[in-house]
Amino acid sequence: MPTLIESEEHQALRKAVSALGKRYGRDYITQVIAEGRYPTELWQEAAKLGYLGVNLPEEYGGGGGGIAELSIVLEELGASGAPLLMLVVSPAICGTVIARFGTEDQKRTWLPGLADGTKLMAFGITEPDAGSNSHRITTTARRDGDDWLLTGRKVFISGVDHADAVLIVGRTEDARTGKLKPCLFIVPRDAEGFSRNPIDMELSAAEKQWELVLDDVRLPADALVGDEDAGLLQLFAGLNPERVMTAAFAIGMGRYAVGKALEYARERSVWKTPIGAHQAIAHPLAQAHIDLELARLMMQKAAHLYDAGDDIGAGEAANMAKYAAGEACVRAVDQAVHTLGGNGLTREFGLASLIIGARVARIAPVSREMILNYISHQTLGLPKSY
Prior knowledge:
The chain is an alpha+beta fold. It has helices at about 10-35, 40-50, 65-80, 85-100, 105-115, 230-265, 280-305, 310-340, 350-365, 370-380, and strands at about 120-125, 140-145, 145-160, 165-175, 180-190, 195-200, 210-220, 225. Helix 1 packs across helix 3, helix 6 (about 230-265) packs parallel to helix 8 and helix 8 (about 310-340) packs antiparallel against helix 9 (about 350-365).
C-alpha cells in the first residue's frame, strides 16, 4: 500500500501543475467557454510539459507513470479553476486501454500522439437506452469478410468535435453461444457513415456533448482493440481509471470552490469582524475541506491498486472514491455559494456555474445509486434487486 504521505516526486508534480493551472485559471476557462472554443493553449502547454501522457509508457512517448500521477494533474488543474475534462477520456481511458490491450501498431499509431497532445481520442459507451446498464448496449459489430460493420447510437460523448477518433464500445456475437459480448473499436472521425449531432446542454463547459450515429460504418480488422473474447476485462480496464479521474475532477472543483469561499470569508465583514470568524460559516467550510481530503485518500488508494495491477481491488476503491468525491464536491460548491450569499450567484465570482458542474460528478460516468448497488452486491454480499 502507498504511504499516507505523498512522495517527493508526487509533491513536486502537484506543485508544478498547480503553477501551470494558476497561470490560466478560471478566467481563461470562462473566456474559452464564452468563445465556444477548446482550451487549446492550456492543453498544448500541458502536453509540452509532459503532463498529458504522464501515465503512458515511456517507450511510446509517455511519462511511464500511472493513474496516480495523472489524477494529480487533473486535480491540481481543477483546483486552479482550469480543469481539462478530456484528461479523463483521452489519456486515462483510451490511452490506458490501448497501452494494455492494443496491438503494437495501434500503440505506435496512437500513444505518442495522445502523450504529446497532437492526437485526441474520445470514448463512446453510453446509449439512449443503455445508460447505467452497459449489458443493454445495442451498438453491434458484424463481420463482412475481413472488415467489421458497426451500427448503433451513442449519447453524451465528450469532445468528439476535437477528437481524431472515438473508442467505441460495441457488441459482437459469440460464435459458440450466440450471445453478444462487448468489444472496443477505434473509429476515425471521418469514417463514412459516422455522424454526430450536438446535445443542447445547460451545463457550461469547454467540452461539448454529442450524439453519435453509426450507420454500417466499415472498419478494417485492425480497428478492433485487443482480443475479441476479452470482453469485460478490457472494458473495465478503461472504466476504473475513468472513475478515479472523475474523482480527481470533483476534488479539484471542490477545492477551487472552498478556496474562493475562504478568500471571501476572510475579507467580508458585516458586524466589525470577518464572517469567517463565525462558526456558522467556518464549520461548514471546515467540514467541506475534511470531506475533500477523505475523498482524496480513497482516490489515491484506488489509483495505487490500479497501477499495481489489482483490477478487482481497484474496482471497489475506484467506485468508492468516485462516490465520495462526487458527494464532497456538491457539498463544497453548495457551501461556497452559500458563504458568498448573493455574490455567490454573480458572474463576477464565478461560483454559480459550478453548481451544475458539481452535479456531473454524482451522475457520470456512473450514478451514485449504481455505485451503492455495486458496493451492496460486490462488497457486502447482499442480493441483487435487479
